[in-house]
């Protein structure tokens, strides 16, 4: 996702030096060029060859960086995959997973962030209008939920046969999905910022509040570790 149209903090190959920087720049440029083409013409109506031509590279170069065409749009997906798990790992002393996720979501609303799904109207409409992109986003959501379950299991010391991390991750991830989809829907309608923020804050407090009786005291970080 190009920074101008979607979520920042994109994941890039962990490679340093000049070569690594050039690879990251190429990757970012390909995603940016492709997303602009997709927004203009529709995801299904643009080929990889056309992306390559617009970016002045070979078709093979595009495929080497992005084996899946969909990931030219979701180029930040690696950062998104770890976003919920990272909140759990970094939760404050005496803070539960639920409270950490609620706090982090609300704190993220000022800017595009992997937790909130904020983006430009063009990007929101692009994903909404493409069955392939919606399907890829569901796959990313499933992988993010699995990463959250692993983080919950590690934090609580749950064994491999314990179903609670999976059950609780499913509930927490579902709240995130509902909130992000609502954010996208409001963006597609060009909702004014103040109205969007007010509605999402209220919905977030309601949605996380529904889970409070069951998960408010689950996966609380000890005061000292």
TrEMBL record:
UniProt KW Transcription keyword: yes
Transcription is among the record's keywords: yes
This protein's UniProt keywords: DNA-binding, Transcription, Transcription regulation
HTH tetR-type domain: residues covered: 24-84
Region (Disordered): 1-26
Chain residues forming the annotated DNA-binding region: 47-66
InterPro entries in UniProt: Homeodomain-like_sf, HTH-type_TetR-like_transc_reg, HTH_TetR
Lineage: superkingdom: Bacteria
PANTHER family for this protein: HTH-TYPE TRANSCRIPTIONAL REGULATOR BETI, HTH-TYPE TRANSCRIPTIONAL REGULATOR RUTR
Protein name: TetR/AcrR family transcriptional regulator
Organism annotation: Streptomyces flavidovirens
